[in-house]
Design goal:
Layout (H helix, E strand, L loop, with lengths): L1 H34 L4 H15 L9 H16 L9 E5 L6 E4 L3 E5 H6 L3 H16 L2 H7 L1
Parallel strand pairs: 1-3
Antiparallel strand pairs: 2-3
Helix pairs in contact: 3-5
Length: 146
């Protein structure tokens, strides 16, 4: 009788452990597959809505020099990267936070506090390259699906 109970408990333990493993390892793989089904046009519209909500018109650093610098950096990064289906758009927001974020569809938001802390354009380029990879790897879309 004790052996049967021990075998039953061991079986239950294996079943629970297997279930936990599948949820922890299998669910992210499944969700990655689901993200692959999201059309880029939908991803772009979603990212535009998110970016517009964060980078409200009255908080944008919309100076031509800033826009030109960001566009030039993105253009150089794109030229040095493998082809991507994304059209990257960088918005700089007046905000003292030292931060940047990538929204779905190629929309990148950089807070002015981060730019103020940078010593040269190469440091800004490093941040933009990092955020561009979040877009290409679809990290925000995976997070939304999760």
């Amino acid at each position: 009788m004790r052996r049967q109970i021990a075998a039953l408990l061991l079986g239950c333990l294996l079943l629970v452990s297997g279930t936990i493993y599948l949820v922890v390892k299998g669910l992210p793989l499944l969700l990655s597959g689901v993200v692959g089904l999201v059309p880029l046009s939908l991803e772009d519209r979603l990212g535009e809505a998110i970016a517009a909500g964060i980078a409200k018109q009255d908080s944008l650093c919309d100076e031509p020099d800033t826009r030109a610098l960001m566009a030039a950096i993105v253009k150089r990064l794109e030229a040095a990267s493998p082809p991507s289906p994304y059209r990257f758009e960088v918005r700089v927001v007046r905000n003292p936070q030292v931060n940047a974020m990538a929204a779905p569809g190629g929309h990148i938001i950089v807070f002015s506090g981060l730019i103020d802390r940078m010593d040269n354009p190469e440091q800004v380029a490093a941040v933009l390259a990092h955020e561009m990879q979040h877009v290409v790897q679809r990290h925000s879309m995976k997070g939304i699906v999760r």
